[in-house]
């Protein structure tokens, strides 16, 4: 703005001087004509050029000063920006080192005063955790192994029991299909060899002994069955048949009464059983068949 004002002032001064110079020229011409002196060039032109040159010089000087001032201010701002950046970096580094110092102090306070201590403690913690996990898994594996052993033992026992049951079933099936009583006795012996506490096998063997006309042997077998099961009704019935074969009707009647007290179905079977035919003429036996047993 200052430069523009200077240019306008110079231009207005030039316009103002032109008429004045013209009037001065007329007066000088009249004086020259009166004095009869002739000049080759007017005297005012060098002064105007000098004024214009001075103004241009002043403008150039002012422009140079303005440029220098602008560059100086720009340099100062760049310097301030650089100072601010440097100050920010310095503060950041200072805070970072402060943070490292604080962390190091905390590590020293809790006992981790070096990276080696941190590494050792980390390894110890990991080792303790791994040891704990290993012990837990070992305990679980031992329990699983124990359960597997028990399960395997139960499976073996069940397998043996199943095989034994299948064999007993096969022997009972053979005994039921065997028409001769003399051949049934060895089968019952095999059953008793597999299961000595089978009272039913003893009573059926006693039945086969009665068919072989061996009442004393049958009595012995029935007594063994009653030791195993005191409420074996079939054993009492076979004892009644055996004592009937020995003509001990009173004993036969008493054993039949015991069988009948346990199983009422023997009442009808006794009427058709040939082994008990001698009792059909025995009055206590007849009364026993006709009258219910008093509880």
Automatic annotation (TrEMBL):
Transmembrane segments: 95-115
UniProt keyword terms in alphabetical order: Coiled coil, Membrane, Signal, TPR repeat, Transmembrane, Transmembrane helix
Top-level taxon of origin: Bacteria
TPR repeat ranges, renumbered to this chain: 233-266
UniProt xrefs under InterPro entries: TPR-like_helical_dom_sf, TPR_rpt
Coiled-coil intervals: 127-168
Residues annotated as signal peptide: 1-22
Keyword Transferase attached: no
Stored SMART domains: TPR
Protein name, per record: Uncharacterized protein
Species of origin: Pelagibaculum spongiae
């Amino acid at each position: 703005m200052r430069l523009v004002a200077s240019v306008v002032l110079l231009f207005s001064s030039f316009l103002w001087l032109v008429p004045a110079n013209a009037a001065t020229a007329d007066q000088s011409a009249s004086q020259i004509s009166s004095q009869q002196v002739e000049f080759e060039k007017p005297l005012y032109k060098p002064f105007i050029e000098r004024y214009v040159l001075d103004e241009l010089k002043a403008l150039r000087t002012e422009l140079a000063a303005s440029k220098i001032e602008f560059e100086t201010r720009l340099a100062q701002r760049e310097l301030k920006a650089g100072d601010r950046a440097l100050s920010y970096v310095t503060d950041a580094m200072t805070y970072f080192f402060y943070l490292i110092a604080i962390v190091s102090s905390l590590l020293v306070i809790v006992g981790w005063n070096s990276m080696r201590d941190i590494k050792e403690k980390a390894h110890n913690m990991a080792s303790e955790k791994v040891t704990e996990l290993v012990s837990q898994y070992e305990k679980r594996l031992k329990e699983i192994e124990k359960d597997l052993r028990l399960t395997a033992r139960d499976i073996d026992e069940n397998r043996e029991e199943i095989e034994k049951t299948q064999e007993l079933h096969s022997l009972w099936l053979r005994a039921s299909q065997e028409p001769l009583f003399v051949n049934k006795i060895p089968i019952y012996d095999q059953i008793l060899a597999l299961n000595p506490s089978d009272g039913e096998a003893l009573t059926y063997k006693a039945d086969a002994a009665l068919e072989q006309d061996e009442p004393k042997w049958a009595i012995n077998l029935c007594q063994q069955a009653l030791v195993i099961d005191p409420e074996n009704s079939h054993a009492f019935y076979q004892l009644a048949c055996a004592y009937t074969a020995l003509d001990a009707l009173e004993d036969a009647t008493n054993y039949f009464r015991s069988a009948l007290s346990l199983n009422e179905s023997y009442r009808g079977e006794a009427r058709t059983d040939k082994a008990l035919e001698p009792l059909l003429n025995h009055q206590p036996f007849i009364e026993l068949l006709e009258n219910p047993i008093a509880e």
